[in-house]
């Protein structure tokens, strides 16, 4: 008996338990899902379906979205935030078909020319495959860390300037009021870190994974001798140019350097803002031991990183690992605190800023939306779509407690176990927003 291929709609119906959270309309003319669904999804080509079929889950959906093979009506490419509630429902409604149906589905996908594995133009980086073949399961050598940081951060300074704000800061801001601007919130974040580290004129400061050097310049403007290091050459060159423009060369420096190669020591304060995600949980002990050894007795270290709501450890998902943060790894704040305590620090304070990160990501997406045409011109539509989807999904994740953002403050004790002048009580100024009047 001749084989009759299934339509795309029939394939979807076999894979998703009703009610389907989307209305699907496919290139072969078939459609399924409720007419009144909140979102109408168009599968525009066999290539888009092939991305989903050959990499089910977030990786395949992301590839189809980036290339226009999957289109969601009413969602701007720079901020497709609204779809993530429905995506959560979709992931919960997948069902495994029986073996006979699975064979029919694969034969039908072949007939639809939807089983070809192909790269995503402009976005699929050859470095990912080269690193995998070269290193296998080995992670976090200096060479590999330099490769993966370059993959993410050397997309182009001009592109990042479009949405990160005037100081080009790619980490969670700290909003002093609900209606504060992104630039005000990033300045307030610098203030918070500066005050937590008790930095003052004449002190020395090390900022590891310093990005474009915003905190380094903030500290130098206040008389602190500040050194930043980054594994992105584009960031280091940009930061050094800004330091020169502001006349801060005597106090500020950003080096293209692995933090493990910093030779100076005896710092008064160390900040690590958004670096720990790249370190690997198994390397935390060596990481914090190294940093405690770079501080003077009584010196303070502020670690600011994305965390999970609990203390499991996992590598980031397929989409994030392939396209956003290769080798990224998260765990909970309890693990961060334990490793700091076990490796040279008394932990003084920890707090969760996940809602501030949701606001930060919202503002980045809105800036990208306002500058969409220029972003596409700079990096191509596929890469611009990638960043819009990643940032909108991250905003949703922070709002729904999928991920959190913790700042953890520690002190290197003196030999007699004293804090060497560090006060007993909190000395920095929190934002008054949301606090009851005294």
Automatic annotation (TrEMBL):
Family: Belongs to the CFA/CMAS family.
Cited CDD domains: AdoMet_MTases
Phylogenetic classification of the source organism: Bacteria, Bacillati, Actinomycetota, Actinomycetes, Mycobacteriales
Protein name: Cyclopropane-fatty-acyl-phospholipid synthase
Annotated keywords: Lipid metabolism, Methyltransferase, S-adenosyl-L-methionine, Transferase
InterPro entries (alphabetical): CFA/CMAS, CMAS, SAM-dependent_MTases_sf
Biological processes per GO annotation: lipid biosynthetic process; methylation
Species annotation: Corynebacterium maris DSM 45190
Top-level lineage group: Bacteria
One of the record's GO molecular function terms: methyltransferase activity
Gene3D superfamilies the record matches: Vaccinia Virus protein VP39 (3.40.50.150)
């Amino acid at each position: 008996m001749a084989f009759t291929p299934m339509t795309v709609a029939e394939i979807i119906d076999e894979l998703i338990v009703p009610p389907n959270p989307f209305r699907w309309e496919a290139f072969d003319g078939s459609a399924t899902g409720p007419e009144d669904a909140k979102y109408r999804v168009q599968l525009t080509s066999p290539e888009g379906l092939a991305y989903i079929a050959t990499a089910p889950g977030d990786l395949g959906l992301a590839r189809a979205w980036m290339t226009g093979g999957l289109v969601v009506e009413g969602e701007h490419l720079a901020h497709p935030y609204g779809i993530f509630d429905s995506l959560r429902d979709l992931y919960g409604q997948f069902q495994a078909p029986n073996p006979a149906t699975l064979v029919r589905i694969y034969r039908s996908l072949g007939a639809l020319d939807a089983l070809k594995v192909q790269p995503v133009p402009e976005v699929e980086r050859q470095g990912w495959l080269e690193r995998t073949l070269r290193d296998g399961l080995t992670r976090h050598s200096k060479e590999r860390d330099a490769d993966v940081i370059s993959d993410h951060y050397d997309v182009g300074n001009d592109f990042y300037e479009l949405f990160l704000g005037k100081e080009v800061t790619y980490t969670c801001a700290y909003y002093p009021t609900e209606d504060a601007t992104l630039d005000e919130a990033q300045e307030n974040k610098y203030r918070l870190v500066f005050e937590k580290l008790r930095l003052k004129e004449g002190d020395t400061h090390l900022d590891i994974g310093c990005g474009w050097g915003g905190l380094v310049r903030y500290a130098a403007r206040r008389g602190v001798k500040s050194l930043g290091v980054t594994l992105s050459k584009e960031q280091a060159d940009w930061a050094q140019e800004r330091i020169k423009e502001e006349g801060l060369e005597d106090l500020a420096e950003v080096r293209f350097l692995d933090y493990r190669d910093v030779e100076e020591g005896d710092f008064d304060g160390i900040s690590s803002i958004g670096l720990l995600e790249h370190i690997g949980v198994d390397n935390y002990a060596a990481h914090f031991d190294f940093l405690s050894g770079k501080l003077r007795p009584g010196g303070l270290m502020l670690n600011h990183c994305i965390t999970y709501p609990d203390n499991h450890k996992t590598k980031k998902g397929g989409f994030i690992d392939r396209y956003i943060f290769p080798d990224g790894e998260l765990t909970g704040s309890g693990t961060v605190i334990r490793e700091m305590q076990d490796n040279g620090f008394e932990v003084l304070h920890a707090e969760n800023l996940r809602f501030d990160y949701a606001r930060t990501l919202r503002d980045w997406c809105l800036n990208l939306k306002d500058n969409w045409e220029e972003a596409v011109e700079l990096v191509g539509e596929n890469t611009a779509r990638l960043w819009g989807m990643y940032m909108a999904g991250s905003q949703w994740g922070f709002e729904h407690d999928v991920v959190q953002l913790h700042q953890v403050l520690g002190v290197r004790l003196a030999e007699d176990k004293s804090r060497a002048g560090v006060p007993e009580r909190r000395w920095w100024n929190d934002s008054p927003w949301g606090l009851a009047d005294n």
